[in-house]
Amino acid sequence: MKLNKLALCGAAVVGSLGMMGCPSDPPPTTHTDAGPIATDSGPVAEPVTVTYIVGTIAIPPAPVDGVAPGFNLDGIVSTGDNPAPATCEDVQPDYRNGSGETGVDNELVGHLLDLIGGLAGDLDVQATVDEQISTGALLIAMRVSDINSFVNDTSVGLDIFLVDPAGCATSPCAPTGGAVSAGASWTQQAGPALASGLTASIVSGKLQGGPLDLPLHFSASGRDITLTIRRAQVGGDISESRLANGNIGGELLISDIVELAEQIQPGIGSTAEGLLRDYADLSPSAADPQVCDSISAGVGFSGVPGTITAP
Predict the structure, then answer these.
(1) Which of 59-63, 98-102, 140-144, 301-305 has the least mean pLDDT?
(2) HEC readout, 72-105
(3) CB atoms near residue 206 (< 10 Å)
(4) Whole-model pTM?
(5) CA torsion sign, 35 to 40 to 42 to 48?
(6) What is the percent of the chain with per-residue pLDDT over 90, rounded to a whole number?
(7) Measuring CA to CA, which residue among 271, 266, 289, 257 is closest to residue 6?
(8) What Cα–Cα distance (Å) separates residue 5 from each residue in 1, 89, 120, 196, 254?
(9) In this structure, what DSSP letter does residue 165 have?
(10) Cβ(143)–Cβ(308) under 8 Å?
């Protein structure tokens, strides 16, 4: 499965707090919220809309000291040494993310990147992502609306959309491997949003919302290919000045990856599926709970304040 020039051109999420209540922001998706409940703390004077702009996207080659981006997607905290796992979801070891959540599922950085790297020796995913941000090909914004509290708010709106790369035409959006500039103004890219009207909440200062299907756009062997993270969740530590320890976590369907492999190198699909099954850790099949049909994937992110205007 030779994957050359892999380009994650629409893969990730966003970072820090944007300008609150800016009149130039596009109107948020209609959202119903009864307001803060008794357990809400740190209320703002009036509900606000904030915008987050992708600053950095992290796809580490392997977990570091048991830390990896993502979420606990199966509700299980797995150690990987269970001699009699009930399902395939309890076979691979789990991690913790930067916000302290345990049971984080992420076989993308746990094993899958190693597998792909072994099949494509010139693959450098992180360098490719950094380049995409620098050139504007991977600029994504996340708008959080109807915020009554940055500590606890049981219902906020969440929209995710692309930013027009035209603003990067004369200069890099960010230094390679760096971050976009704080306080910059951006324009929303024309066309449909990546996701609109998602269900989200803020609990103990942590935002989490979803689910959504998030496309990854690849360029491999001269072909444009899309692979999608299914049922993804997004979130991070939210405050008035930033969205830190950002995470996106979801699942890659083995059938999707096999289809991608076949597009790149016809006839390799069955071999690829055999390798992928060894790392599958989500969605046990109905016929055999020891066989999973998906592989977990997690990506980290951070960002800076920014303002978004309509296209």
Answers:
(1) 301-305
(2) CCCCCCCCCCCCCCCCHHHCCCCEECCCCCCCEC
(3) 19
(4) 0.81
(5) negative
(6) 37
(7) 257
(8) 13, 32, 9, 31, 21
(9) G
(10) yes
